[in-house]
């Protein structure tokens, strides 16, 4: 889950396809308040891509596409993923592709940062950048833009995953799960299922949502946003229905609201324990052998755990060989 400090949203110069009705956000030291006269627009087609890889899926024909929302400045997270689970392009005989989804950065150094992002894109060809302000409050927009890209650029993939940039991912276990007999190929979404969750009305909370934005006291069933997997017929359906679902700033619960409107229920994973929130501060390398996802503390921790896991599994296979 991204952790972005944000201040006032900066909008770009309008163009025929540019941003419309970006949220005005003000923050104070005591609360996160939102100008409700200008709701942010989650509908993905209000934005357009300024960095894109429109032909990559057609060329590679992936079975699984991993979509990672990440802040423009967070190069360390992207490089850690590229050197670990993002470097695995074929798993159990299936092609896997990874893309990073960025918005626009604000601040005094935004032009210098944008140039660095452009050069990074030329080097790696895995960056997708759209014309919304990249803030924590706008994660709902970011998620729906991910869905729009999958629907319009990568519809031939069988499955996709939205996974946060601070996550460990065991692709062997994930692809093995998706290849199990009986896993649906349509209207399927799984991860950590959240049910009967209260909407937070405390204005001091980072997860505050006003009654005007979401009037119900509880969220519909949804998947915890750190990482959820879905059949790739869903992105287009989610984008289309989002036109009729009022946006609010809790992105994973908003996807749940869209699913509810579609009449699609999130599914428990075949082994729910594989989607872990945390493995704990005192972890062992073998703790990562059986999981699919878990949250980590830093990009360097991901690199260290990955190296340790590869050494552990190599030793284990030698013993059993």
Give a verbal description of the structure.
The structure is a single chain. This protein has one domain (25-195, 222-320): Spore Coat Polysaccharide Biosynthesis Protein SpsA, Chain A (Alpha-Beta Complex). The chain is 29% helix and 19% strand. The chain is built from eight helices and 15 strands. The strands form four sheets. Strands 3, 4, 5, 6, 7, 8, 10, 13 and 14 form a nine-stranded mixed sheet that branches. Strands 1-2 form a two-stranded antiparallel ribbon. It is globular.
Short account of what is shown:
This protein has helices at residues 56-60, 75-82, 110-124, 139-153, 171-178, 234-242, 251-262, 299-320, and strands spanning 25-27, 32-34, 49-51, 64-69, 90-91, 94-104, 127-133, 159-163, 167-169, 189-191, 193-194, 222-223, 227-231, 267-268, 293-295. By secondary structure, it is an alpha/beta fold. Strands 3, 4, 5, 6, 7, 8, 10, 13 and 14 form a 9-stranded mixed beta sheet that branches. A two-stranded antiparallel sheet has the order 1-2.
Give start-end ranges of low-pLDDT stretches.
1-39
Please indicate the percent range of residues in DSSP E strands (runs of 2 or more): 15-25%
**What summary fits the major beta sheet?**
9 strands, mixed
Kindly, what is the distance between the CA atoms of the first and last residues, rounded to a whole number of angstroms? Answer: 39 Å
Total domain units:
1
Give me the oligomer status.
single chain
Q: Provide the helix percentage.
A: 25-40%
- Look at the structure and give the mean pLDDT: 87
CATH class: Alpha Beta
User: What is the string of helix and strand elements?
Assistant: EEEHEHEEHEHEEHEEEEHHEEH
| Helix segment tally | 8
CATH superfamily: Spore Coat Polysaccharide Biosynthesis Protein SpsA, Chain A
- Tell me the CATH topology: Spore Coat Polysaccharide Biosynthesis Protein SpsA, Chain A
CATH-derived architecture: Alpha-Beta Complex
The radius of gyration computed from the alpha-carbon positions, rounded to a whole number of angstroms, is 19 Å
- Name the shape in a single word: globular
Quickly give the structural class.
Answer: alpha/beta
């Amino acid at each position: 889950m991204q952790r972005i400090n944000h201040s006032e949203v900066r909008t770009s110069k309008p163009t025929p396809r540019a941003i419309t009705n970006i949220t005005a956000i003000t923050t104070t030291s005591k609360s996160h308040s939102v100008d409700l006269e200008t709701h942010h627009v989650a509908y993905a087609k209000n934005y357009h891509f300024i960095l894109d890889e429109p032909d990559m899926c057609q060329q590679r024909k992936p079975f699984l596409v991993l979509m990672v929302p990440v802040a423009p400045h967070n190069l360390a997270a992207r490089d850690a993923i590229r050197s670990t689970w993002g470097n695995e392009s074929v798993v159990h005989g299936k092609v896997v592709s990874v893309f990073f989804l960025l918005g626009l950065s604000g601040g005094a150094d935004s032009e210098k940062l944008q140039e660095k992002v452009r050069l990074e894109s030329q080097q790696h060809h895995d960056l997708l950048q759209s014309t919304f302000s990249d803030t924590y409050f706008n994660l709902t927009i970011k998620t729906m833009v991910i869905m729009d890209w999958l629907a319009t650029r990568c519809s031939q993939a069988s499955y996709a995953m939205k996974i946060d940039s601070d996550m460990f991912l065991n692709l062997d276990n994930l692809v093995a799960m998706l290849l199990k007999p009986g896993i649906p190929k349509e209207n399927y979404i799984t991860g950590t299922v959240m049910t009967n969750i209260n909407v937070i009305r405390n204005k001091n909370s980072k997860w505050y949502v006003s009654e005007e934005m979401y009037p119900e006291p509880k969220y519909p069933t949804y998947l915890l946003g750190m990482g959820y997997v879905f059949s790739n017929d869903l992105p287009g359906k989610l984008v289309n229905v989002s036109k009729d679902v009022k946006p609010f700033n809790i992105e994973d619960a908003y996807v749940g609201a869209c699913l509810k409107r579609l009449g699609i229920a999130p599914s428990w994973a075949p082994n729910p324990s594989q989607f872990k929130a945390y493995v704990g501060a005192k972890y062992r390398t073998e703790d990562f052998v059986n999981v699919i996802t878990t949250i980590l503390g830093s990009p360097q921790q991901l690199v260290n755990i990955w190296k340790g896991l590869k050494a552990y599994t190599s030793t284990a296979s030698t013993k059993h060989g």
